[in-house]
Write a sequence for this structure.
């Protein structure tokens, strides 16, 4: 029993609810929401270190022992993601303070942002499949509201698409849960794992697993990403950054859990499918990233490429591959938030969205330009920055598994990511400075600060990767050996 | 009985798919509502229909009906209720802004 | 156009109280029988919705000057609060307990913390349903 495990979900939830009463006190809302996320980050650091000494932690709600009750399970993988979520969303909120505008702040922006974080953290921590569905829905409902907040035409039209596709994928999720419950009679993930291992993953269970693959592909944008670029470029910058950093990652996390903990017996079918889908995602995402000239579209397609790249780590299913995928997940949450914030800042400063309409911004805003360059390098995986280790390990995993095709695609797509971002950089920051000093929109320090913080984070994550390695190794070990997780949940250790 | 309910769920899915494929937003919302009811029925069938006594304290029986699917369905109903309500408000606001509930007319909408 | 709805108005005055009582009855029944916070809350909110339908929004808001968004928030606070109460006593999150008390009129009564949780659920349901109805009906 450790009640701390539920805190990463409860702190944002409770704060979000309390903020409803402070509707007109914007300052109070800002301070409280920021403090709540900092506290969440603190709790996750504590949990992360406790897991290293005590092993996987669990909390049975209401004292109902598994498999009867619902529970939260904290292993290194989930808590690492919870920690990153808290840090990234705190920094994005800093950006929102000065960019989101009074109208949205007054319409409960902060409560819904915190609710989104609560849903994301709940999805990472839960140890029960139905509870995962509920947390997904909490997160999605918050995201529905956030994407429509402000009610501009383009937002409304895009959000109809977004909501409709998510309603459909949630329906598939419930369908999968129903079939799974009818087949093995439990929904506790550890219990599921044990039972599926007992009866063997026959054709029926494999079909159900593919149903879950569809669900999480829709949520994470693996191959079924057609809805993503439109929806992610509609809302204001801070909200788009939250979406880009968090939402697809939850789908990726769920996919890792399902296919390492429960459905790992038929890799020749399921993991091959994931591999093919990842390959197609890499190709499609790269095409999109180099074809468009709208910054927001390019950035959204970069999200898709990353999804494909991380799932290469799952498709090869070696311990090193998992380590790489986990590293890359953490890295990508930071860097995608930064990329979205930078793109949004550029659009805010110039009032244009297409790259050929901007030029020579580096003359006006040098720091912004160099930050963008740093982001580009980090995404491409240039050594001292945070993207390097993840790419290296995923590559190593692919070599170990002999998937040279995936390896080649992953690295070609990496080059194309570099190309697509350099294209933005060359077109917008270099060239003739067209904005004269009088016309220059002043870049507020409060907008630049969050970007600088995230930039520092990506450097720190690159240089300090050594200290994170302990946790990542532990996380990958648990993914590789599902019985560790099952023992921790179903064993009688309290 | 199980077979009948499963067929009913199938019919509901058919109806829902037909509605979802239309262009009017209101039909799509109705379709998504019907779709969720279909899966609720399926959840109930998966738990087994009426196998024993009511699972309440004080009932004496050697067999009890599985209570879990009911709990799942209740939760799922609440969620689909919330989503449907949100979709209705969204459709109404979109209609106010764009003056249309036809998805094809909204296609390729940029801004202002 | 003003329709003559005198029958509806008269009946509503009576029926609303029946519905409200039934809602409370369902809510309390939930302790050991079918019923509970969710269903009770839905019935309670149906009474409110009936009021909104028969009278207009301003009149009802004058009689019940409550912000229903805040009602929902209070509800969630209650529900999460009982969960955290268990944490304060060193038990697992959301643990519920009960105790039998001897009360003057009711005799031996079982009081359970789950009642507080259900109060939270009921308030949340009332708040959410009324908020949704109000936001759809605005400026129609």
């Amino acid at each position: 029993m450790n009640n701390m495990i539920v805190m990463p979900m409860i702190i944002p939830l409770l704060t979000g609810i309390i903020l409803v009463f402070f509707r007109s006190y914007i300052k109070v809302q800002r301070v409280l929401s920021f403090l709540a996320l900092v506290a969440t980050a603190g709790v996750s650091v504590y949990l992360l270190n406790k897991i290293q000494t005590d092993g996987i932690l669990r909390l049975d709600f209401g004292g109902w022992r598994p498999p009867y009750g619902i529970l939260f399970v904290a292993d290194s993988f989930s808590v690492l993601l919870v920690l990153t979520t808290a840090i990234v969303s705190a920094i994005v909120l800093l950006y929102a303070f000065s960019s989101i505008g009074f109208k949205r702040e007054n319409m409960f922006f902060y409560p819904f942002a915190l609710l989104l974080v609560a849903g994301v953290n709940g999805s990472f921590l839960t140890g029960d499949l139905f509870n995962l569905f509920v947390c997904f829905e909490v997160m999605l409902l918050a995201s529905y509201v956030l994407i429509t907040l402000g009610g501009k035409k383009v937002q409304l039209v895009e959000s109809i698409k977004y909501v409709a596709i998510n309603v459909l994928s949630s329906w598939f999720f419930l369908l999968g849960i129903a079939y799974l419950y009818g087949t093995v009679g439990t929904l506790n993930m550890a219990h599921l794992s044990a039972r599926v291992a007992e009866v063997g993953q026959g054709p029926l269970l494999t079909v159900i697993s593919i149903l879950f693959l569809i669900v999480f592909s829709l949520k994470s944008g693996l191959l079924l990403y057609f809805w993503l670029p439109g929806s992610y470029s509609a809302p204001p910058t801070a909200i788009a950054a939250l979406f880009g950093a968090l939402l697809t990652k939850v789908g990726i996390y769920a996919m890792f859990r399902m296919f390492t903990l429960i459905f790992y017996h038929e890799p020749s079918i399921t993991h091959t499918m994931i591999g093919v889908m990842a390959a197609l995602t890499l190709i499609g995402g790269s095409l999109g990233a180099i074809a468009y000239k709208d910054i927001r579209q390019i950035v959204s397609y970069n999200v898709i490429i990353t999804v494909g790249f991380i799932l290469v780590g799952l498709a090869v299913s070696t311990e090193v591959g998992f380590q790489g995928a986990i590293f890359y997940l953490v890295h990508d949450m930071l860097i995608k938030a930064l990329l979205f914030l930078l793109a949004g800042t550029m659009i805010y400063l110039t009032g244009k969205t297409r790259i050929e309409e901007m030029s020579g911004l580096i003359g006006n805003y040098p720091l912004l330009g160099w930050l963008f360059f740093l982001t580009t390098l980090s995404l491409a995986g240039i050594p001292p920055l945070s993207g390097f280790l993840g790419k290296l390990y995923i590559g190593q995993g692919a070599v170990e598994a002999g998937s040279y095709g995936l390896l080649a695609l992953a690295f070609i797509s990496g080059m194309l990511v570099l190309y697509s971002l350099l294209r933005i950089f060359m077109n917008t920051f270099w060239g003739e400075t067209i904005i004269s000093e009088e016309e220059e929109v002043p870049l507020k320090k409060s907008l630049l600060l969050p970007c600088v913080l995230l930039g520092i984070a990506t450097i720190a994550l690159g240089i300090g990767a050594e200290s994170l390695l302990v946790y990542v190794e532990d996380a990958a070990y648990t993914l590789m050996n599902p019985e560790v997780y099952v023992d921790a949940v179903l064993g009688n250790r309290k | 009985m199980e077979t009948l309910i499963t067929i009913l769920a199938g019919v509901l899915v058919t109806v829902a798919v037909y509605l979802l494929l239309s262009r009017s937003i209101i039909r799509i919302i109705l379709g998504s509502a019907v779709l969720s009811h279909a899966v609720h029925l399926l959840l109930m069938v998966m738990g087994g229909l009426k196998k024993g006594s009511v699972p309440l304290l004080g009932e004496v029986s050697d067999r009890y009906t599985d209570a879990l699917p009911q709990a799942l369905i209740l939760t799922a109903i609440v969620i689909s209720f919330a989503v449907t309500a949100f979709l209705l408000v969204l459709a109404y606001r979109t209609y106010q802004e764009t003056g249309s509930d036809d998805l094809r007319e909204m296609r390729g909408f940029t801004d202002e | 156009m003003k329709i003559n709805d005198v029958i509806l108005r008269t009946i509503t005055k009576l029926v609303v109280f029946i519905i409200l009582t039934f809602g409370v009855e369902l809510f309390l029944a939930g302790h050991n029988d079918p019923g509970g916070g969710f269903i009770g809350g839905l019935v309670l909110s149906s009474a409110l919705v009936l009021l909104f339908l028969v009278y207009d929004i301003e009149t009802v808001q004058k009689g019940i000057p409550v912000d229903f968004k805040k009602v929902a928030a209070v509800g969630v606070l209650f529900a999460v609060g009982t969960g955290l109460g268990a944490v304060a006593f060193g038990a697992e999150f959301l643990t519920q307990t009960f105790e039998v008390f001897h009360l003057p009129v009711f005799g031996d009564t079982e009081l359970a913390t789950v009642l507080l949780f259900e109060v939270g659920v009921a308030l949340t349901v009332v708040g959410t349903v009324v908020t949704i109805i109000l936001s759809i009906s605005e400026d129609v």
Observations:
- Chain B has three helices and no strands.
- Residues 2-50+64-98 of chain B form one domain.
